[in-house]
Amino acid sequence: MEFYSGLLLGAMISKFAIVSIIIAVVLIAGIIALGIWGKKLQKQQDESRQQLEAAKQSVKLLVIDKKRMKLKDANMPAVVMENVPKRFQNQKLPIVKAKVGPQIMSLICEEQIFDLIPVKKEVRASISGIYILEVKGIHSSLEAKGRKISFREKVSAKAKSLSADIATGKKKDSK
Questions:
Q1: Which domain range does residue 63 map to?
Q2: All residues at 6 or more sequence positions from 121 whose CB lies less than 8 Å from its CB, including other chains
Q3: In a domain, 148, yes or no
Q4: Does residue 70 fall inside a structural domain?
Q5: How far is residue 5's CA from residue 8's CA, in Å, rounded to a whole number?
């Protein structure tokens, strides 16, 4: 009886070992595949960035409005909408509505510079097609606005400062 239970236990351990080895091999293969795919996507992004840099022009823009909105709601030209895959048409992008010369256009902006763009002001921008790559202020420098601090962050900061005061032995006069 003990012999059979030991045999069963040995079979269970070997099945567990086999399953865990298979899972490990699949995970390692997945990580390698993701690494190769990531390098391929990075190479494509670098090539497209070089093309954008080669075709960029410096123009004056009068920024009318800026929003994060879906591409299909941004009144983009029909040519743009035809070339964008369906899965990206519902993705929210930073859109800037600006007057370029006599024409009002909707332009796609880079995420990093979206907060720098002032509304209802004139800026000098480097654009490539309908894509804004870089923005510079004409009359003044551009600075990003500080984001609004939430109530939770204010309370946690106050609690940290009070706990630090208590730890050092300082007492604040309450008014």
A1: 54-137
A2: 62, 63, 137
A3: no
A4: yes
A5: 5
For residue 7, the model assigns a pLDDT of 53
13-38 pLDDT per residue, tens = 788 888 999 999 999 999 999 999 99
Alpha carbon distances (Å) from 169 to 67, 156, 158, 174 = 48, 20, 16, 15
Q: How far is CA 142 from CA 46, 118, 165, in A?
A: 27, 8, 37
Q: Is 93 exposed, middle or buried (0-12, 13-18, 19+ CB in 10 A)?
A: middle
Q: How confident is the model at residue 79 (pLDDT cuts 50, 70, 90)?
A: confident
**Residue 161 located in a structural domain:** no
Q: pLDDT at position 175, please?
A: 44
pLDDT of residue 10: 58
Alpha-carbon distance of 166 to 172, in angstroms, equals 9
